[in-house]
Structure formats: C-alpha cells, structure tokens
Amino acid sequence: MKLELQAVMESVRAQMPEKRWLHTIGVRDTAIRLARKYGADPVQAEWAAVLHDVAKYWPVEKQRQALLDAGDTEPWLQYEKPLWHAPVGAIVAEQEYQVADELILDAIRYHTSGRPQMTLLDKIVCLADYIEPGRNFPGVDRLRELADVSLESALIAGFDSTIVQLMKQGARIFPLTVLARNSLLEELDSTQQDTKEAGRS
Q: Is 91 helix (H, G, I), strand (E, B) or coil?
C-alpha cells in the first residue's frame, strides 16, 4: 500500500456526511478490537474498515458504471442498489487507493452481504459494521454480547435480523447472505463436533 492511511482517511471523509464518517471511525475501532481478540491483523482490519463505505454516497449511476467498467456486475446489479457500494468500495480501494491486499479488498466487497466461507477479516469487518458503538437497533446489544464469545454466532444473529427485516418489508433477500449464514452454521456445527470428539478422546 503506497498511500499513507492518514491521507486515505482524509480523502474518504470528504466523500461522506459527518455522521457516516463517525460510523466509519466506530467500525474502524471495533474492527481493530475484534482483530486483536480473534487473531487477525489489526492493520488489515483498519484499512478495510476505513474504506468500507467509501462509495456509499456516490450517485447510483456512478456506482453502476464502476461495476460495469470493472466487469464485476454479477450478482450485484440484479439486486437492490444499497448493496452496490460494497463491491464498488473494493474497486475504489484497489484503483484509487492502491490497495493490493486481496484480504482487505474482499472484506470491503462483502461487508454488507457476507459470503460462503468468509475469511476471518471478512467476519470482523462485517460484524464491526453491525455492532460499532453508534449503531442502535433492536437486538444490537445481544450481537455485541455474542461478539465477545463467537464471531460466527454473532454474525448468524446479525444476518438473521437482516433477513427477518427484509421479509417483513416484502423485499428480496440477497443470495450471498443466505449462503453466508448457512456456511457459518456449518462452521459452528463442525467446531462443536470437533469439541465433542476431543472430549471423548
């Protein structure tokens, strides 16, 4: 990464309202804390968190064009526009801010939707986006409690709340989110099975 993080932060801040910047700082601080707790790289967590919403306030057509230009249209353009800023953010991070680390780029790309077989950094940035201190929605305190015990359990609960909300609204559910939830459940089942077998040996 050739650019200094401070310069990147100033550039990102200029592209969003102050309230969203405060959210970004909350995600950054939470992601760093989770990275230290669960053994991820805090530097990677900080970069991904700072850049995760860089394109959120771009005009929709500019987001669409960025996806078209990058050839990254599937499955994003087939679903709701609020999802687009995540893959566009990854494109911007790579092209404008010279981020070459695929772990960071993927954590930005999937911070809203999740995906199957999420990396540790994916999980941390996605969860930090749910639980940063400025968030205030029904169930967020429970997510924060779960985050201190298990990234997977907390993310499953977060995806559950998102899916239920979308169902109540009669909205479509993004397939990657369902697949991410199922994948996390499989991870938990596997971990619990390993623990049981270890206890019997």
A: helix
